[in-house]
Amino acid sequence: MTASGLYIRNEGAGRPIVFVHGWSCPGMFFNRQVADLKDHARCIVPDLPGHGATGDRVPRTIEAAADAIQAYLNEQDLQDVVLCGWSMGALVSYALIERHGADRIGSMIAIDMSPKVLNDAGWQNGTRSGLTVDQNTHFINTITADWQRLPRRIARRMFAADSEPCPGLLDYASREIAKANPIWLKDMWMSLTALDFRELLRTFPVPFHLAAGAKSQLYSPEVHRWHDENVPDFQLTLFDHSGHAPHLEEPEKFKALVLGEVTQ
């Protein structure tokens, strides 16, 4: 455990890249990236509040997670950091920049994420399921009430809609998600679904790269289009055979993307 209060895996040498995991999927979901990249970059992988070895840390909010990662960057005096946030991890990365600025940040990679998860009358680029405030209230209650049934459903929606993930990947994801404490996950879900980073992204202070799954079950191509039209220094890499987890579904292509970023 570091002074930030987070469990943080730190391997390799070179330009620092912080892999910030998604909801219900702790830092181990970036194990392949650490193995692939530690000879080229300093790979920093925190477990966020509510997840993994930092599960019981409070408060369990996106803002607290962002503050803790910033504290680690300060503690280690890291510069020119690449933030790589998957799903919820992208929101944590946005919160870090919104709250602390980007003096230590060189660039950003977001993995298959929208700046606002919930849909409303003026915003239809949240989840593809059309999740609204009212529907989200029901899901929040479901997290704890029906947790035993949820891990495999959550895992299946991570991957491409029209094909089975590679052997063992769905089982692995389901098994690891099932280890989580649903009460802790509920807190983080409530926090992440309350946020809206559209204004931040319109004036985003560092180069922004979106790694998006062409077969995502969570976010549509309209989300990619919104970024292209609104984020100032924007690049899109589309993963043709991936859903919400391109780094798991097409790891070699994802490795190439990250290598291009950290060696610039």
Calculate the terminal CA-CA distance, rounded to whole Å.
31 Å
The percentage helix is 40-55%
Largest sheet: 7 strands, mixed
Shape: globular
Give the helix/strand class.
alpha/beta
What would you report as the Rg, rounded to the nearest angstrom? 17 Å
* N to C succession of SSEs: EEHEHEHEHHHHHEHEHH
Mean pLDDT: 96
Count every helix, treating DSSP H or I runs of 4 or more residues as helices: 11
Query: Uncertain runs with pLDDT below 50, 5 residues or more?
Result: none
Q: Order of strands side by side in the largest beta sheet?
A: 1-3-2-4-5-6-7
Kindly summarize this structure in a few lines.
This protein has eleven helices and seven strands. The protein has helices at residues 31-37, 62-76, 88-100, 133-145, 150-158, 169-178, 182-192, 198-202, 221-230, 246-249, 251-262; strands at residues 7-11, 15-20, 41-47, 81-86, 105-111, 208-213, 234-239.
Please give a structural write-up:
- There is one protein chain.
- With 264 residues, this protein is α/β, with parallel strands linked by helices.
- The protein is 41% helix and 16% strand.
- The chain is built from eleven helices and seven strands.
- The protein has helices at residues 31-37, 62-76, 88-100, 133-145, 150-158, 169-178, 182-192, 198-202, 221-230, 246-249, 251-262; strands spanning 7-11, 15-20, 41-47, 81-86, 105-111, 208-213, 234-239.
- A seven-stranded mixed β-sheet has the order 1-3-2-4-5-6-7, sandwiched between helices.
- α5 (150-158) crosses α6 (169-178).
- The chain is globular.
- The two termini are 31 Å apart.
- The mean pLDDT is 96.
